[in-house]
Amino acid sequence: MLRRGLLVAAVLAVAAAAWFGWSWRAAAQDDELTRARERDEVLSTASTALTALNTVDYRTVQFDYDRWLQVSTGQFGKDLATDREEHLKRTAETRTMATASVRQAALVELLPDTARLVAVLDVRIGINNEPPVPNRSRLSVELTRTDQGWKVSAVQAG
């Protein structure tokens, strides 16, 4: 009787292991799971990039601007690169300090090489050593997949 009980337990353990193995493999290859991971990656990258693009300190403006160029691509990135010297000069002259945080972001469209999202940022801007003034920005953002990952290719206030 003991032998029969052990045999039944062994068969049930093998069946359970097989079912869990099959379930794990199916979940790992699930297209919806892959798409959800990609969506999360795009939202995370966009949040980091938008925070960087809306943060500047006149004392570290060259570093901040380099960060802007790192998170941007396409015509948007080219425009930032073209305006670099003017922006550095203006930021230093006005002693601009701005910090940003993404309040909300939602993906509107996710294609293999592009993504569109809307975002709301809380931005605090101070000029000429004045206390920072809070501001809320609503943005439409486009990201493009590059060899270095997702980068911001367009931003429009909305």
TrEMBL record:
Keywords: Membrane. SUPFAM superfamilies: NTF2-like. It is found in: Membrane. One of its GO terms (cellular component) is membrane. The keyword Cell division does not apply. InterPro entries: NTF2-like_dom_sf. The keyword Oxidoreductase does not apply. This is Mce-associated membrane protein.
